[in-house]
Amino acid sequence: MTKKIGLFFLAGFILFACGQQAEQDSARVAEDKTIEELVSNPMAYEDYEVRFEGMIGHICRHSGDKMRIMQPDNDAFSIMVMLGDFTPEFGPEFEGSDIKVQGVLKTQVRNIEELEDHDHEHEHEEGHDCDSTQEAIKRLEEKGISPDIMAFIELTSFEIK
Predict the structure, then answer these.
(1) pLDDT at 124 over 50
(2) Helix boundaries (H) for 27-153
(3) 77 and 35, same structural domain?
(4) 19 partner at 20 to 30 Å CA-CA among 73, 102, 118, 129?
(5) Chain segment 69-123, per-residue pLDDT in tens
(6) In this structure, are residues 47 and 152 in contact, taking their beta carbons and an 8 Å threshold?
(7) Same domain, residue pair 81 and 116
């Protein structure tokens, strides 16, 4: 009898733990966003799995490992998509095609080198390797520098329409 009660509690704990993990995983998903939403506030979606639609504006001719996706109703907004393992599946002939993209949004501070010009107390340091985009933003803002944040997508799946 005690063994059955113990197994019951163990099964309950496992189900509870799995449910908590699923909640945590789903908390990092931002479905069906526009490119404008993603690039206008990239820090709100950093490391989130995102889905969006657009038109392939350009596929890199040099490396072939990235493409630029334009927002369908406003081509003033676009986002870079890193193809990763999907690189062989894309070529220049796909430019102009409509696409559904799913991937993880990542950010990068483009003007991090400005810290070198303003950080005289750490002149002996080589570069400014920050562990995260948030750390880089904080260090720039402490120096009175407005961070230039770039959003990009690490592709996990796609559908050409």
Answers:
(1) no
(2) 35-40, 114-118, 133-142
(3) yes
(4) 102
(5) 999 888 899 999 999 999 999 999 999 999 999 999 999 888 778 776 655 444 4
(6) no
(7) yes
- Could you give the CA distance from residue 53 to residue 37 in angstroms, rounded to a whole number? 12
53 and 23 in a common domain: no
Check whether residue 20 and residue 37 sit in a common domain.
Answer: no
**Residue 156: both structure tokens together:** 């996990």
Amino acid residing at 16: F
Same domain, 81 and 60: yes
Concatenating the DSSP letter of every residue in 28-74 gives: TEE-S--HHHHHHSGGGTTT-EEEEEEEEEEE-SSS-SEEEEE-TT-
pTM for the model: 0.71
Percent of the chain scored above 70 by pLDDT? Answer: 75
CA 11 centroid distance within chain: 36
Q: Which domain holds residue 3?
A: 1-28
CA angle 60, 34, 154 (to 5 degrees): 40
